[in-house]
Write a structure and sequence with these properties.
heterodimer, A: 104 residues, alpha+beta, five-stranded antiparallel beta sheet, B: 557 residues, Sulfite Reductase Hemoprotein, domain 2, Sulfite Reductase Hemoprotein, domain 1, 19 helices, 20 strands
C-alpha cells in the first residue's frame, strides 16, 4: 500500500496543515503521521472527520507519500508545492520551496 | 470616476456586517462548512493551496490613488506585502486569514471598494478598455455604461444564480483592448450613421476547456436599450443554459448547441417584450452617470514636445520606455502610460505595497488621481502630460516599475498556476519568469517586436492561453508537469483561438521550444514590421511545426 498522510487547511487562516502523531495539526509536512496500512488510514480519517466537525480544519484530503532520503515526499507535485510553499520569490522574508524537494 | 451615493454606502456596509456575522458563526460552528462556502464565495473569499485568497473588485479597472493606497495598506497589514492584479482587472490577496477578512472588507468599504460578485454564478466585474476616456481612437468613453451595468447587475435578484458565471466586457474603440470577443457578452460602443450611440452585441465568447470566439448578434442596439437587450440575453441564458454539467453551463455552449440564429431569435423575442419598458435608460440618467467620468481639465502643456525630444536623446532607457509604454492621448499634449508589472524575470501582475503606494503618489502628482488595471496584468496612468513624462519615468524607475516592455514578448500574462491555485495542474509563473529572462534584453525584445505569450496552469484558461500569439497550457501527466503550445491566438478585434502545434514539452524544454519558434519567425518574416501573428497567419503552422518536431519523412522527401 502507498503510504498516506492526512492534510487540510486550518479554518481560521486557511494555512495548509498535516496531522501529526500527537493528533495535532502541524504546518510542517515532515511532522506528519504516516499511515502505512489500511487501519492506520481509517484512523487518521476518523481524526480528520472529528476535527472537521469541531471546526478546526477544512478541505481534508488523504494524500499519497513516499519516503525519499528520510523525508516524507508527496507523490503529486501539487502536494509538494502545497507543503513547501510557492516555488517563486513572491515576497521578501518568505522562503522559496526547495527545488530539489519539488523536482520529480 | 463614480462616487458612492448613500444607497451604495449603506448597502456595502451592510454586506460587510452580514459577512462579519457569517464568519463569526462559522468559527463558532453555528454555520457548517457546506452552508458557509457559498457565502464566503459571494464575498470573494476562496480557499487556495496554501491559504485563503480574497479577490477584490476593481470596477472596469478604474481606481483613484486613495483606493490604490488602501490596497497597499491591506497588502501590508493583512497579507504578505503584495497583491496580484488579474486578467479580470481585479486584485487578489493570497494570504489573508479568514478571521481578518471582515475587517479587510470594512477597510475597503471606506474607499468605496468591495469583493461582492467576484465569485459565484452571477454577473462578475464588468471589464473595459484600460485607456477608456483617454484613447485617441475612442468613439465614446465606455465606463459610464460599465457603471450602469455594474449598478444594474449588483445583487440582481433574477441573475444571482445563473447556470454559471457571466462576464461582460465593453470597448469604446474600434481597436479592441478589452478582449470583448472572449466574453459572455462583448459590447462594442459605436456611433451609427446619424451619430447616435449604441452597441454592437457579441455573445458566447469564452476560453476554458471549450473556447469560442463570440458571435455578433446585433450590429447596433441603441444606447437607451442597453439594459433591456442585456436582460433579454441573460433571461434566455438563465432559462435555457445547461445546469446539468458545469462544464457545459456557460452561454457559449448554449450558443453552440442552440445555434446562433435560433438563440438570437429567442433573444430578440424577449427584447421585443422588454423594449420601451422600465429598463429603457433615460437620457438624464446616462448623462448623470457620464458626469462622474468627465475628463479632467487638461491645461495646455505644449512645452512637453520639445522636452520629450530632448529627454529621449539624452537617455536611451527613457526613449525605449516612451517607445513601448507611452500611448497616444486625445489631447496631443498628454499621453497614457502603461506601468509594466512584468519586470524581467519577475512575477506577472504582482505589485508590492511600496510599489502600490508609489503608483498612488505618482498618479496624484502627475496623473489626475487616476489609475487603471489592464486585463494584461499591468497598470495604467491614463492622463499624463508629455511635459511630465521624465519625472514620472524617474519615479517609476525608483519603484522598479519602469520596465519598457508593453506588448513585447516579456509582457506575459500568467495565471497564478500551481504555485497558488487549487485547480491548477502545472505552474505558470516560473515558466513566465524563465521566458522573460531568456528574451529580456532590450535588443532581443525589440528585434522580435509585438508578441503576446499567455500561460495557463490548467484548462480553465485563466491565463488566456487560447488567445496568446503563443499560448502555453500546463497539464499534469503521470504526476509531472507538461506544457502544450498553441499558436495564432488573438483577443483583439480580429480574435482567433490558438491551434495546438503538437505534443507537449517538459518544463525544462519549453523555453528552448519558444526560442525555436521565435527563430523560425525571424527567419520567415517578410520584413521587421511583419509581426509574429501576421507571419503565422500568412504561413500557417507547418514551418513552426517542422522546426519544433522535424518534418515527417513523407514531407521531407
Amino acid at each position: 500500500m502507498t503510504a498516506k498522510v492526512l492534510t487540510a487547511n486550518r479554518l481560521t487562516d486557511g494555512i495548509a496543515v498535516w496531522l501529526d502523531a500527537a493528533g495535532n495539526w502541524s504546518e510542517d509536512l515532515q511532522s506528519a503521521l504516516v499511515a502505512r496500512h489500511a487501519e492506520a488510514v481509517a484512523s487518521i480519517e476518523e481524526i480528520g472527520k472529528r476535527d472537521f466537525a469541531a471546526n478546526k480544519v477544512v478541505d481534508l484530503a488523504v494524500i499519497d507519500v513516499q519516503d525519499v532520503d528520510g523525508r516524507i515526499w508527496p507523490v503529486r507535485v501539487r502536494e509538494r508545492i502545497r507543503a513547501a510553499g510557492p516555488t517563486i520569490a513572491y515576497a521578501p522574508g518568505y522562503k522559496i520551496a526547495d527545488p530539489d524537494f519539488i523536482a520529480s | 470616476m463614480y462616487r458612492y451615493d448613500e444607497f451604495d454606502r449603506d448597502f456595502v456596509n451592510a454586506r460587510v456586517e452580514e459577512f462579519r456575522d457569517q464568519v463569526a458563526r462559522r468559527m463558532s460552528g453555528e454555520l457548517a462548512d457546506d452552508a458557509f462556502k457559498p457565502l464566503r464565495l459571494m464575498n470573494g473569499v476562496y480557499l487556495q493551496l496554501h491559504a485563503y485568497m480574497l479577490r477584490v473588485a476593481i470596477p472596469y479597472g478604474t481606481m483613484n490613488s486613495r483606493q490604490v493606497r488602501m490596497l497597499a495598506h491591506i497588502a501590508r497589514r493583512y497579507d504578505r506585502g503584495y497583491g496580484h492584479f488579474t486578467t479580470r482587472q481585479n486584485i487578489q490577496f493570497n494570504w489573508p486569514a479568514l478571521s481578518d477578512i471582515p475587517d479587510i472588507l470594512a477597510e475597503l468599504a471606506t474607499v468605496e471598494m468591495h469583493a461582492i460578485q467576484t465569485s459565484g454564478n452571477c454577473i462578475r466585474n464588468v471589464t473595459s478598455d484600460q485607456f477608456a476616456g483617454a484613447a485617441i481612437d475612442e468613439v465614446a468613453d465606455p465606463r459610464p455604461y460599465a457603471e450602469i451595468l455594474r449598478q444594474w447587475s449588483t445583487v440582481h435578484p433574477e441573475f444571482s444564480f445563473l447556470p454559471r458565471k457571466f462576464k461582460i466586457a465593453i470597448t469604446g474603440a474600434e481597436h479592441d483592448r478589452a478582449a470583448i470577443q472572449f466574453h459572455d457578452i462583448g459590447l462594442h460602443l459605436k456611433k451609427n450613421d446619424k451619430g447616435e450611440l449604441g452597441f454592437g452585441f457579441y455573445i458566447g465568447g469564452g476560453q476554458g476547456r471549450t473556447p469560442f470566439v463570440a458571435k455578433k448578434i446585433h450590429d447596433f442596439v441603441p444606447e437607451a436599450d442597453l439594459l433591456a437587450y442585456t436582460t433579454a440575453v441573460l433571461r434566455v441564458y438563465n432559462l435555457y443554459g445547461r445546469r446539468d454539467n458545469k462544464y457545459k453551463a456557460r452561454i457559449k455552449i448554449l450558443v453552440h448547441e442552440t445555434g446562433v440564429e435560433e438563440l438570437t431569435r429567442q433573444i430578440d423575442e424577449e427584447f421585443a417584450r422588454l423594449k420601451g419598458g422600465e429598463l429603457t435608460l433615460p437620457e438624464a440618467d446616462i448623462k448623470a452617470i457620464a458626469e462622474y467620468f468627465k475628463a479632467p481639465v487638461f491645461l495646455e502643456r505644449p512645452e512637453g514636445w520639445e522636452s520629450l525630444a530632448r529627454w529621449k536623446k539624452a537617455d536611451e532607457g527613457f526613449a525605449r520606455w516612451v517607445e513601448r509604454n507611452v500611448h497616444p492621448h486625445k489631447n496631443p499634449d498628454y499621453a497614457s502610460i502603461t506601468i509594466s508589472l512584468k519586470p524581467i524575470g519577475g512575477i506577472p501582475g504582482d505589485a508590492t505595497d511600496a510599489q502600490m503606494d508609489a503608483v498612488a503618489d505618482i498618479a496624484e502628482e502627475y496623473g489626475f488621481d487616476e489609475v487603471r488595471v489592464t486585463h494584461e496584468q499591468n497598470l495604467v496612468l491614463p492622463h499624463v502630460a508629455l511635459a511630465d513624462l521624465e519625472p514620472v519615468y524617474r519615479a517609476l524607475t525608483a519603484a522598479g516599475l519602469a520596465t519598457a516592455n508593453a506588448g513585447f514578448i516579456t509582457d506575459i500574462i500568467a495565471c497564478p498556476g500551481l504555485d497558488y491555485c487549487a485547480l491548477a495542474n502545472a505552474r505558470s509563473i516560473p515558466l513566465s519568469q524563465e521566458i522573460s529572462t531568456r528574451f529580456g534584453s532590450p535588443e532581443r525584445q525589440a528585434e522580435i517586436g509585438d508578441l503576446k505569450i499567455k500561460i495557463s496552469g490548467c484548462i480553465n484558461a485563466c491565463g488566456h492561453h487560447h488567445a496568446g500569439h503563443i499560448g502555453l497550457l500546463g497539464v499534469e501527466k503521470k504526476g509531472t508537469e507538461l506544457y502544450q503550445i498553441t499558436l495564432g491566438g488573438s483577443a483583439d478585434e480580429h480574435s482567433s483561438i490558438g491551434e495546438i502545434i503538437g505534443r507537449g514539452f517538459e518544463p525544462e524544454k519549453v523555453t528552448d521550444a519558444i526560442e525555436t519558434l521565435i527563430e523560425t519567425y525571424l527567419g520567415l518574416r517578410l520584413k521587421p514590421e511583419e509581426t509574429f501573428l501576421e507571419a503565422y497567419r500568412r504561413v500557417g503552422p507547418k514551418p513552426f511545426k517542422d522546426a519544433l518536431y522535424g518534418a515527417s519523412p513523407a514531407e521531407a522527401a
